[in-house]
Design goal:
single chain, mainly alpha, two-stranded parallel ribbon, 48% helix, globular
Length: 216
């Protein structure tokens, strides 16, 4: 009952309340992004949502468009400005998702596994793919248990645990804990990375390690 009907209604109500309360912040941030980082103000990126469907995630832009002499974008850690880091650490960059992805598109929820890049999809094992049985969320069980400071395997375990235990009380607990995590600005990035290491890179390293073990 909660998973099929109440959760969606709760998403809309809470998202609209948050948008009204934070509307001054949204306007100010939009202006600052335009001044400091230029246009476009919103960052759009394809992610994978429920049932492996492609969704378009909308966030406030937090990186510059700095490029090298060949015209290629510089690494994330260089393009991520101090202003951008503040947006990410406070999760203010996520606010546009409340309107576009939760209220309008209905392809995300307040709570659920974070939507990840399409190129990760072939890399999941059967258990990890279960994270796509529900709508992805702005926050989730993995985000309140280490955020980007956890390993990918740990994050996926939290995601599947959430899928198996969705309830009103679990969602409320995660939302309350999210507020604390945001204020503490904990787990914003993994050591040595602007956010966290690519799952594709970690997966390739695991495969290489397995090959080395087999050749011993």
């Amino acid at each position: 009952m909660y998973r099929k009907y109440i959760k969606r209604l709760l998403d809309i109500v809470l998202a609209l309340i948050a948008l009204v309360m934070l509307s001054p912040v949204i306007v100010v941030v939009a202006v600052l992004v335009r001044i400091k980082l230029g246009s476009p103000v919103l960052f759009k990126q394809k992610r994978i949502g429920k049932k492996d469907e492609v969704i378009v995630l909308r966030k406030f832009r937090s990186m510059s468009d700095e490029r090298d002499e060949n015209g290629d974008l510089l690494p994330d850690e260089i393009r991520l400005t101090k202003f951008g880091k503040t947006l990410r650490s406070t999760s203010i960059d996520e606010l546009p998702s409340l309107l576009f992805n939760i209220v309008f598109r209905a392809d995300m929820s307040l709570v659920g596994p974070r939507p990840l890049l399409p190129e990760y999809l072939p890399l999941y094992n059967d258990e990890q793919k279960r994270r796509h049985e529900v709508r992805p969320g702005i926050t989730g069980l993995a985000q309140v248990n280490g955020r980007n400071a956890t390993t990918w395997n740990e994050r996926f375990k939290f995601d599947v645990e959430y899928v198996d235990n969705i309830s009103f009380w679990l969602d409320m607990k995660i939302i309350c804990k999210t507020i604390g995590v945001v204020f503490k600005r904990s787990g914003v990035s993994a050591e040595g990375h602007a956010t966290m290491e690519s799952f594709a890179v970690e997966k390739a390293r695991e495969v290489e390690t397995e090959r080395e073990y087999e050749n011993v």
